[in-house]
Write a structure and sequence with these properties.
By secondary structure, the chain is an alpha/beta fold. It has 6 helices and 29 strands. The protein folds into 2 domains: about 160 residues, Hexapeptide repeat proteins (UDP N-Acetylglucosamine Acyltransferase, domain 1), CATH 2.160.10.10; about 80 residues, Udp N-acetylglucosamine O-acyltransferase, Domain 2, CATH 1.20.1180.10. α3 packs antiparallel against α4. The chain starts with a helix and ends with a helix.
Length: about 300
Amino acid sequence: MAMDSRLNGNLDRWRGFRHTVGMIHPTAIIDPKAEVDSTVMVGPYAIIDAGVRVGPRCVIGPHVHLTGQTVIGAGNRFHTGAVIGDAPQDLKYHGEPTRLRIGDDNVFRENVTVHRSTTMEGETVIGSNNFLMAGSHVGHNSVVGNYVILANGALLGGHVQVQDRVFISGNCLVHQFTRIGTLALMQGGSRVSLDVPPYCIVRGPNTICGLNVVGLRRAGFSSALRLELRRLYHALFRSPKKLREALAEARVHFQSPEAVLVLDFVEGTRRGICSDRRGRTARGEGEEDEEAGEG
Protein backbone atom coordinates (compact mmCIF):
# COMPACT_ATOMS: atom_id res chain seq x y z
CA MET A 1 0.00 0.00 0.00
CA ALA A 2 2.85 2.41 0.84
CA MET A 3 4.49 1.77 -2.51
CA ASP A 4 1.17 2.22 -4.32
CA SER A 5 0.65 5.62 -2.68
CA ARG A 6 4.15 6.72 -3.75
CA LEU A 7 3.43 5.64 -7.29
CA ASN A 8 0.19 7.59 -7.35
CA GLY A 9 1.95 10.66 -6.01
CA ASN A 10 4.59 10.43 -8.72
CA LEU A 11 1.89 10.03 -11.38
CA ASP A 12 0.38 13.34 -10.31
CA ARG A 13 3.74 15.08 -10.74
CA TRP A 14 4.75 13.55 -14.05
CA ARG A 15 2.30 14.87 -16.63
CA GLY A 16 2.15 14.05 -20.29
CA PHE A 17 2.68 10.32 -19.88
CA ARG A 18 1.54 7.79 -22.44
CA HIS A 19 0.15 4.34 -21.63
CA THR A 20 2.04 2.11 -24.07
CA VAL A 21 4.18 0.51 -21.35
CA GLY A 22 3.01 1.59 -17.90
CA MET A 23 3.45 5.30 -17.37
CA ILE A 24 6.32 6.42 -19.58
CA HIS A 25 7.27 10.04 -20.15
CA PRO A 26 7.31 10.94 -23.85
CA THR A 27 10.96 12.02 -23.68
CA ALA A 28 12.12 8.66 -22.30
CA ILE A 29 13.98 6.33 -24.69
CA ILE A 30 13.30 2.59 -24.31
CA ASP A 31 14.87 0.09 -26.67
CA PRO A 32 12.28 -2.28 -28.18
CA LYS A 33 14.39 -5.22 -26.93
CA ALA A 34 14.18 -4.08 -23.31
CA GLU A 35 11.62 -5.83 -21.09
CA VAL A 36 9.72 -3.41 -18.88
CA ASP A 37 6.84 -4.52 -16.68
CA SER A 38 3.50 -2.80 -17.33
CA THR A 39 3.48 -1.27 -13.83
CA VAL A 40 6.84 0.50 -14.19
CA MET A 41 7.02 4.32 -14.26
CA VAL A 42 9.73 5.94 -16.38
CA GLY A 43 10.54 9.64 -15.97
CA PRO A 44 11.72 12.33 -18.37
CA TYR A 45 14.83 11.66 -20.47
CA ALA A 46 15.46 8.25 -18.91
CA ILE A 47 17.16 5.64 -21.13
CA ILE A 48 16.60 1.88 -20.97
CA ASP A 49 18.81 -0.10 -23.33
CA ALA A 50 18.38 -3.49 -24.96
CA GLY A 51 19.11 -6.38 -22.60
CA VAL A 52 17.58 -4.66 -19.55
CA ARG A 53 14.70 -6.35 -17.73
CA VAL A 54 12.74 -4.26 -15.22
CA GLY A 55 10.36 -5.94 -12.77
CA PRO A 56 7.03 -4.68 -11.44
CA ARG A 57 6.40 -1.44 -9.52
CA CYS A 58 9.81 0.09 -10.22
CA VAL A 59 10.11 3.89 -10.45
CA ILE A 60 12.78 5.16 -12.84
CA GLY A 61 13.42 8.86 -12.34
CA PRO A 62 14.57 11.58 -14.72
CA HIS A 63 17.84 11.09 -16.63
CA VAL A 64 18.37 7.56 -15.29
CA HIS A 65 20.33 5.25 -17.59
CA LEU A 66 19.76 1.48 -17.31
CA THR A 67 22.07 -0.50 -19.58
CA GLY A 68 23.91 -3.80 -20.06
CA GLN A 69 22.54 -7.27 -19.36
CA THR A 70 20.78 -5.97 -16.26
CA VAL A 71 17.97 -7.81 -14.48
CA ILE A 72 16.03 -5.69 -11.97
CA GLY A 73 13.50 -7.10 -9.50
CA ALA A 74 10.35 -5.52 -8.08
CA GLY A 75 9.80 -2.24 -6.28
CA ASN A 76 13.16 -0.61 -6.96
CA ARG A 77 13.47 3.20 -7.14
CA PHE A 78 16.10 4.99 -9.21
CA HIS A 79 16.55 8.71 -8.58
CA THR A 80 17.80 11.38 -10.96
CA GLY A 81 21.01 10.65 -12.82
CA ALA A 82 21.63 7.10 -11.60
CA VAL A 83 23.64 5.00 -14.08
CA ILE A 84 23.03 1.30 -13.56
CA GLY A 85 24.72 -1.54 -15.46
CA ASP A 86 27.31 0.44 -17.40
CA ALA A 87 30.62 -1.11 -18.53
CA PRO A 88 33.16 -1.97 -15.81
CA GLN A 89 36.12 0.32 -15.24
CA ASP A 90 38.59 -2.46 -15.96
CA LEU A 91 41.27 -2.51 -18.67
CA LYS A 92 40.69 -6.25 -19.13
CA TYR A 93 37.11 -5.61 -20.28
CA HIS A 94 36.60 -5.73 -24.05
CA GLY A 95 32.92 -4.98 -24.59
CA GLU A 96 31.35 -8.32 -23.67
CA PRO A 97 27.62 -8.32 -22.72
CA THR A 98 28.29 -8.91 -19.03
CA ARG A 99 25.72 -8.97 -16.25
CA LEU A 100 24.23 -7.11 -13.31
CA ARG A 101 21.49 -8.59 -11.12
CA ILE A 102 19.40 -6.50 -8.70
CA GLY A 103 16.86 -7.81 -6.18
CA ASP A 104 13.75 -6.10 -4.80
CA ASP A 105 12.89 -2.85 -2.98
CA ASN A 106 16.24 -1.12 -3.29
CA VAL A 107 16.69 2.66 -3.43
CA PHE A 108 19.33 4.19 -5.70
CA ARG A 109 19.64 7.90 -5.00
CA GLU A 110 20.99 10.67 -7.23
CA ASN A 111 24.01 9.84 -9.41
CA VAL A 112 24.58 6.36 -7.99
CA THR A 113 26.69 4.18 -10.30
CA VAL A 114 26.65 0.37 -10.37
CA HIS A 115 28.84 -1.41 -12.93
CA ARG A 116 28.25 -4.80 -14.47
CA SER A 117 30.78 -7.65 -14.29
CA THR A 118 34.07 -7.80 -16.15
CA THR A 119 33.67 -11.30 -17.63
CA MET A 120 30.78 -13.41 -18.87
CA GLU A 121 31.43 -15.96 -16.11
CA GLY A 122 30.74 -13.54 -13.25
CA GLU A 123 28.12 -10.96 -12.35
CA THR A 124 27.64 -7.93 -10.15
CA VAL A 125 24.90 -8.54 -7.58
CA ILE A 126 22.80 -6.14 -5.48
CA GLY A 127 20.46 -7.94 -3.08
CA SER A 128 17.21 -6.55 -1.66
CA ASN A 129 16.15 -3.71 0.65
CA ASN A 130 19.40 -1.79 0.22
CA PHE A 131 19.78 1.99 0.33
CA LEU A 132 22.51 3.48 -1.87
CA MET A 133 22.76 7.20 -1.16
CA ALA A 134 23.77 9.95 -3.57
CA GLY A 135 27.06 9.55 -5.36
CA SER A 136 27.89 6.07 -4.05
CA HIS A 137 29.51 3.52 -6.35
CA VAL A 138 29.50 -0.28 -6.63
CA GLY A 139 32.33 -1.62 -8.78
CA HIS A 140 32.27 -4.57 -11.15
CA ASN A 141 31.78 -8.11 -9.80
CA SER A 142 30.91 -6.82 -6.34
CA VAL A 143 28.27 -8.65 -4.32
CA VAL A 144 26.11 -6.57 -1.95
CA GLY A 145 23.78 -8.47 0.38
CA ASN A 146 20.49 -7.31 1.91
CA TYR A 147 19.60 -4.31 4.10
CA VAL A 148 22.94 -2.65 3.35
CA ILE A 149 23.36 1.14 3.52
CA LEU A 150 25.96 2.98 1.46
CA ALA A 151 26.02 6.62 2.50
CA ASN A 152 26.91 9.52 0.22
CA GLY A 153 30.17 9.08 -1.65
CA ALA A 154 30.90 5.54 -0.43
CA LEU A 155 32.98 3.65 -3.00
CA LEU A 156 33.24 -0.14 -3.44
CA GLY A 157 36.03 -1.36 -5.70
CA GLY A 158 35.73 -4.38 -7.94
CA HIS A 159 35.04 -7.85 -6.50
CA VAL A 160 34.08 -6.46 -3.07
CA GLN A 161 31.76 -8.58 -0.92
CA VAL A 162 29.41 -6.78 1.48
CA GLN A 163 27.34 -9.04 3.72
CA ASP A 164 23.88 -8.29 5.14
CA ARG A 165 23.04 -5.24 7.29
CA VAL A 166 26.36 -3.48 6.81
CA PHE A 167 26.46 0.31 7.23
CA ILE A 168 29.13 2.07 5.16
CA SER A 169 29.23 5.75 6.09
CA GLY A 170 29.94 8.76 3.90
CA ASN A 171 33.10 8.91 1.77
CA CYS A 172 34.33 5.48 2.84
CA LEU A 173 36.66 3.58 0.51
CA VAL A 174 36.65 -0.21 0.11
CA HIS A 175 39.54 -1.68 -1.87
CA GLN A 176 38.94 -4.34 -4.51
CA PHE A 177 38.55 -7.97 -3.34
CA THR A 178 37.85 -6.85 0.25
CA ARG A 179 35.10 -8.48 2.36
CA ILE A 180 32.87 -6.60 4.83
CA GLY A 181 31.25 -8.92 7.39
CA THR A 182 27.60 -8.83 8.42
CA LEU A 183 26.44 -5.98 10.68
CA ALA A 184 29.80 -4.23 10.43
CA LEU A 185 29.91 -0.44 10.44
CA MET A 186 32.45 1.80 8.73
CA GLN A 187 32.67 5.27 10.26
CA GLY A 188 32.77 8.26 7.93
CA GLY A 189 35.93 8.63 5.87
CA SER A 190 37.28 5.20 6.78
CA ARG A 191 39.15 3.12 4.23
CA VAL A 192 39.95 -0.56 4.15
CA SER A 193 42.04 -2.86 2.01
CA LEU A 194 41.78 -5.71 4.54
CA ASP A 195 38.71 -7.75 5.50
CA VAL A 196 36.36 -6.33 8.15
CA PRO A 197 35.09 -8.99 10.60
CA PRO A 198 31.33 -9.30 11.23
CA TYR A 199 29.79 -7.05 13.89
CA CYS A 200 32.81 -4.71 14.11
CA ILE A 201 33.30 -0.95 13.78
CA VAL A 202 35.93 0.43 11.40
CA ARG A 203 37.62 3.70 12.32
CA GLY A 204 40.29 5.09 10.03
CA PRO A 205 42.52 3.01 7.74
CA ASN A 206 42.27 -0.78 8.23
CA THR A 207 41.47 -0.37 11.91
CA ILE A 208 38.63 -1.75 14.05
CA CYS A 209 37.72 -0.31 17.44
CA GLY A 210 35.13 -2.64 19.00
CA LEU A 211 31.71 -4.08 18.32
CA ASN A 212 28.79 -2.36 16.61
CA VAL A 213 26.70 -2.71 19.76
CA VAL A 214 23.93 -0.37 18.62
CA GLY A 215 23.57 -2.32 15.39
CA LEU A 216 23.49 -5.60 17.30
CA ARG A 217 20.73 -4.30 19.57
CA ARG A 218 18.67 -3.12 16.63
CA ALA A 219 19.10 -6.53 15.02
CA GLY A 220 17.67 -8.20 18.14
CA PHE A 221 20.86 -9.68 19.59
CA SER A 222 20.35 -10.48 23.28
CA SER A 223 22.59 -9.02 25.98
CA ALA A 224 24.04 -12.48 26.60
CA LEU A 225 24.93 -12.87 22.94
CA ARG A 226 26.42 -9.38 22.78
CA LEU A 227 28.56 -10.22 25.81
CA GLU A 228 29.74 -13.44 24.17
CA LEU A 229 30.70 -11.57 21.00
CA ARG A 230 32.52 -8.94 23.04
CA ARG A 231 34.56 -11.66 24.75
CA LEU A 232 35.29 -13.23 21.38
CA TYR A 233 36.41 -9.85 20.04
CA HIS A 234 38.91 -9.50 22.87
CA ALA A 235 40.09 -13.08 22.48
CA LEU A 236 40.82 -12.56 18.80
CA PHE A 237 41.82 -8.93 18.38
CA ARG A 238 43.18 -7.81 21.76
CA SER A 239 45.14 -10.91 22.64
CA PRO A 240 48.95 -11.07 22.75
CA LYS A 241 48.75 -14.40 20.92
CA LYS A 242 49.21 -14.81 17.21
CA LEU A 243 45.90 -14.71 15.37
CA ARG A 244 46.12 -18.33 14.22
CA GLU A 245 46.70 -19.48 17.80
CA ALA A 246 43.90 -17.24 19.12
CA LEU A 247 41.51 -18.66 16.50
CA ALA A 248 42.24 -22.26 17.48
CA GLU A 249 41.70 -21.51 21.15
CA ALA A 250 38.52 -19.51 20.49
CA ARG A 251 36.95 -22.43 18.61
CA VAL A 252 37.02 -24.40 21.85
CA HIS A 253 35.35 -21.71 23.95
CA PHE A 254 32.94 -19.98 21.52
CA GLN A 255 30.44 -22.21 19.73
CA SER A 256 27.26 -20.18 19.14
CA PRO A 257 26.29 -19.76 15.46
CA GLU A 258 27.14 -16.04 15.62
CA ALA A 259 30.58 -16.73 17.11
CA VAL A 260 31.28 -19.46 14.55
CA LEU A 261 30.33 -16.98 11.82
CA VAL A 262 33.08 -14.64 13.04
CA LEU A 263 35.61 -17.45 13.39
CA ASP A 264 34.92 -18.82 9.91
CA PHE A 265 35.12 -15.32 8.40
CA VAL A 266 38.48 -14.57 10.03
CA GLU A 267 39.90 -17.98 9.20
CA GLY A 268 38.79 -17.64 5.56
CA THR A 269 40.56 -14.34 4.90
CA ARG A 270 42.96 -14.05 1.99
CA ARG A 271 43.80 -10.36 2.27
CA GLY A 272 44.22 -10.27 6.05
CA ILE A 273 41.99 -8.85 8.79
CA CYS A 274 41.74 -5.27 10.03
CA SER A 275 43.50 -4.92 13.38
CA ASP A 276 42.25 -3.42 16.62
CA ARG A 277 43.30 0.21 17.01
CA ARG A 278 44.83 -0.49 20.43
CA GLY A 279 47.03 -3.23 19.05
CA ARG A 280 46.62 -6.95 19.61
CA THR A 281 48.60 -6.71 22.85
CA ALA A 282 46.12 -4.30 24.45
CA ARG A 283 43.45 -5.52 26.83
CA GLY A 284 40.47 -3.96 28.64
CA GLU A 285 36.76 -3.80 28.00
CA GLY A 286 36.68 -0.69 25.81
CA GLU A 287 32.97 -0.19 26.50
CA GLU A 288 32.96 3.41 25.33
CA ASP A 289 34.38 2.49 21.92
CA GLU A 290 32.03 -0.42 21.43
CA GLU A 291 28.97 1.64 22.26
CA ALA A 292 30.05 4.51 20.02
CA GLY A 293 29.02 3.02 16.70
CA GLU A 294 25.57 4.04 15.56
CA GLY A 295 24.54 1.33 13.15
